[in-house]
Amino acid sequence: MKKIVVLTGSEISAESGLKTFRDSGGLWENHRVEDVASPDGWRKDRAMVLEFYNQRRKQALEAHPNAAHVALAKLEERFEVQIITQNVDDLHERGGSSNVLHLHGVLFKVRSSLDEHLVDNIKEIAAKGWELKVGDQCPRGSQLRPLIVWFGEAVPEMRLAKRFAKQADFFVVVGTSMVVYPAASLIEYVPNQTRKCIIDPEVPVLRSSIENLFSILESATVGVPRLVDQLLA
């Protein structure tokens, strides 16, 4: 069975109605991204950071998988499919995908602020299923924080993502500008002989050294179902 590896970015979630920092000019209620998504922001104002992610969870619960999410799951009928996503929502899972690697963390999980290995599912510990407050602690007594890779933090799943990229028989990029590193570097680990496809209305500028690359100039909800229909035909 051939292995298809798919790298997805914020635009696939945006088509389900989830706002991105790009949509708001990098601001959230007049706060810079560094204020709400960095270790420094966490040290300065935990309550503000927690409220930012509370609102992201609430918004994600109201969103639904779109045609692109569902089409990618359909590929599993014939192929081994590995999703690598820069998104922290669970729309791929709710869309039916079985194998999803979240590079930048998971919105509905939280961890100890002192021990990254102490992880909980927020739906099991929060009364509303999405709200985390100052004073909510892990069993060892430290404040819980979002299980999110913030700006300035290492991306621990990159090693596994690189391995998946090297194993790909077909590599697809959907809904990402390919400017956010280290995720943008994954296409460089795909073997030269492997076919690669980018689905985006505006094709990102890529290095000329990338071989066997073609583009579908469509949004995710149009381009992904089109590609999937071709692959399953």
What is this entry, summarized?
The protein has helices spanning 10-14, 33-36, 39-44, 46-62, 67-74, 91-95, 122-125, 158-167, 220-232; strands at 3-8, 27-28, 31-32, 80-85, 100-102, 105-112, 119-121, 144-148, 170-174, 195-199, 213-216. By secondary structure, the protein is of the alpha/beta class. The radius of gyration is 18 Å and the shape is elongated.
Write down the Rg: 18 Å
N-to-C SSE series? EHEEHHHHEHEEEHEHEEEH
Q: Sketch the major β-sheet.
A: 6 strands, parallel
Helical fraction equals: 25-40%
Question: Segments where pLDDT lies below 50 for 5+ residues?
Answer: none
Biggest sheet, strands in spatial order? 5-4-1-9-10-11
State the distance separating the first and last CA atoms.
16 Å
- Supply the number of helical segments: 9
Q: Tell me the structural class.
A: alpha/beta
Arithmetic mean of pLDDT: 91
Beta-strand residue percentage: 15-25%
What characteristic shape results from the CA principal axes? elongated
Number of strands: 11
